[in-house]
Design a protein that fits this description.
Elements lengths: L5 H4 L3 E2 L6 E2 L2 H10 L12 H8 L4 E6 L5 E5 L23
Antiparallel strand pairs: 1-2, 3-4
């Protein structure tokens, strides 16, 4: 059973900040956008890059709105072919986020 799980088929997705596991990219991005206090990835300086990589280059962050929430929009020319999750080394130091 375990070997047939999503972990071994590359279909499970993990938040690189809080390490919570999700079953779809949509669920992972929703978690990241939610701004939960436990995770807080939305408020980090790397958030735009993380969204870009996880979406395969289809989404980008265009700054923040008046409430300081990230503004995420589709990009004109996705470059996701060259982006991989290995581009997202998890910082050892909490301040690097």
């Amino acid at each position: 059973m375990h070997l047939s799980s999503g972990v071994h088929h590359g279909t499970d997705h993990r938040c690189i900040k809080c390490l919570k596991l999700f079953g779809s990219t949509t669920a992972l991005i929703a978690h990241m956008e939610s701004g939960s206090e436990r995770c807080g990835i939305r408020d980090t300086k790397r958030f735009g890059h993380v969204i870009h990589i996880i979406s395969g280059g289809f989404l980008g962050m265009e700054g923040r709105d008046e409430r300081d929430f990230p503004v995420i929009k589709p990009v004109d020319k996705p470059d996701g072919i060259n982006n991989t999750l290995s581009d997202l080394d998890r910082p050892e130091d909490e301040q690097e986020w």
